[in-house]
Every structure is written in structure tokens, then in C-alpha cells.
Amino acid sequence: MNEPVRSPDTAGTRRPDTSSRWSLTSILVAMAAGAALFLAWQTAGTLLLIFAGLLFAAFLDACTRGLAFVVPIARPWRLAIVCVLLALGSAWLLAWSSYSLIGQADSLVRLIGEQLRILRGELRSLGITPPPGAEGPRTLGQLLLPDPGVLFGHAYTAFNLATGLLGTAVVVIFIGLFAAADPEAYRQGALRLFPLDRRRRIGEVLDEMGEVLRWWLVGQLGAVVVIAVTTWIGLALLGVPGALLLGLQAGLVNFIPYLGPVIGAIPILLAAMAQGTSMVIWAMGVHLVIQTLEGYVLAPMIQRRVVAMSPVLTLAAVMLFGALFGALGVALATPLAALLRVAVLRLYVEDRLGDKQAGRSAG
């Protein structure tokens, strides 16, 4: 009588232990992720510098795309025109500021230093001892070189700082130029790191992130210009000294969401204190009106094309990146958080969790 043929399982052949394989795979993935996070932590400054270069590339790309509506020529020529205009504008701004702003800056620093000393005396009369050095510098020269006795030490430090800033600027500019010259080549290079069946989806997410970055940058630059010009005009009409510089600093610190207007109000307050309480009220009123119009009129127009982030997420990103990476982290916190949000919504919420509606409504 023929014996029944036994299956490989019943014949004693064992199946591979899939659970142990998955455990080993999970351990290896966790170790790789930990190593990647440690490497990113150790090279955070360099990574932020690269991202700043990509941000500059997004700005060049936005200008090049916009120029196509005015001058419909090939992209390389449009990019060349944008670069030439930026170079000429930067040279003119540097020459103009060296003649016009240095004297105003010295007077403004002297004025703010006097007001800080007055505040120091008033606090002492109330029994409050301010921290040392709260009286502030008397001139711009003392702000840059406060102790002539250690001139060469300060000069050495200033030289190192200047060369460091110059080197950083050169790196950012060249990364931006190379990335803006041929963005598709770098996009395709990044997509080759992913499996074939995921490249199309990753490409869509990268395109969306690029659009978000361009519109965020254009919107922020527009807001900076509007706030700087309107603050300058408003303070100049009131007669506040150093109105131009106060307008410039109010516009630049607006890059820091929510905290920027508060930081920008402090120099305006100190400059207006020299002309009495009524000038302080008028100057703060002008600053408050401009910031309110920016927050309720200009910002919503920008957010129509940009992923809107909640105030809690934005402030948390600014504080976290600022604590970890300093001033550069504060400056780049918002665009980084916006890009990470797009990646999480599209690749995790929609693709991994399958919640398409939640991802679209949040995005």
C-alpha cells in the first residue's frame, strides 16, 4: 500500500523564523536611524548652511520663474539677468549704506545708550539693580570696539568673525547658484535614492515642498519690505530719530514669527523715549497698526499658497531650533518646519496611515 506523500512541513523541514527576521530588521533599522540622527546632530551647522543655500536657490528660482512673465526667454538667460540685477543691487546698497547709514547708526546707538542709562537710574531709584552693562554703549564705535586698550584683540576677533561670515555667505551663494542653475538634475539625483515604485510619489512631495518654500520666501520678503517701508515712513512723519534704521530692523526681525514684532518694538520704544511719553504712545501705535495689518491682511494672502502652521507649532519650532542651533536655527526654523510638515502629511498621514482626507484638510 502506497504511503501518502507528506508535505515538506510534515516531513521535518522547518520554515524560516520570520519573527526573528523582522526583529533583526527592526534592530538594524533602529541602529541606522540612531546613527543618522547622531550624524545629523554632529553636523547640524553644516546641514543648516546647506539648507540656507537651498533657500537662496528657491529665491533665485522664484525670481527666474517670475521673470518669464516679463521676458519670455530661456531659463539660463533669465537666471543670469536675475543674478546680475541682484549683484548690482547689492553693490548699490552697500555703497549707499556706507555713506548714509553709518552716521545714523552711530547717533541711534548713542541715543539708545542714553535711554538705557536713564532706565538704569530709574530702576535704581526703585531699589532694583539692573545687570552690569545695562547702560549700553555711547557710540557705534564703542558697540563694535568697546575697549580701546584691547584694540588688537578685538580686531583679531572681528577679523575672524568677518572672514567666517564671508565664507558662510560664499558657500550659501554658490549652493544657491548651482541648485538654481539646474534644479531638475538635483531632483532626479535625490529620487534615485528611493525605490522605483515610490519615486513618482516622492517626486510629487518634493515638488510641493519646493512650491511651499518659494511662496513662503516670496511672502516673507514682501512682508519685510512692506513693514520696513511703512515703519520708516510712519516714524519719519512722527519725527522719531533714526526712522530709517528702525524701519529696517523692524522689517528684518519680522522673519521671526510672533516674536519678531516684539523684538522690533524695543529699539523703537527706546528711540521714542527721548521725546517724551506722547511720542512713545504714537510710535508704539504706528508699530502696532502696521503689525496688525500685516498679521490680518498680508499674512492671510501669503498663506493661501503656503502650508499654514498653527502658532503653537511655529513657536515651538522657533524655540527648539533656536535653543539647539542659535541664531541660524531661529532664522531657518519656520521654513524647515513647513517642509517637515508637508513630508509628514503626505508620506505618513496619507500614505502610511491612509487618511487622505485628514492630510488634505490639514495641508
Q: How would you describe what is shown here?
A:
This protein has 363 residues and is mainly α. 79% of the residues lie in helices and 0% in strands. Helix 2 packs across helix 3, helix 2 packs across helix 11 and helix 9 runs antiparallel to helix 10 (277-303). The longest helix has 51 residues, at 75-125. It is globular and about 75 Å long. The chain starts with 17 loop residues before the first helix and ends with a helix. Residues 9-15 and 133-159 have low confidence and may be disordered.
Shape: globular
What percentage of residues falls in helices of 4 or more residues? over 70%
Strand content: under 5%
Main pleated sheet: none
Q: Helix tally?
A: 12
Mean pLDDT comes to 75
Instruction: Calculate Rg over CA atoms.
Output: 28 Å
Low-confidence segments, given as residue ranges, are: 9-15, 133-159
* Amino- and carboxy-terminal Cα gap: 71 Å
Order of helices and strands: HHHHHHHHHHHH
Given the helix and strand composition, which structural class is it? mainly alpha
Question: How many beta-strand runs?
Answer: 0
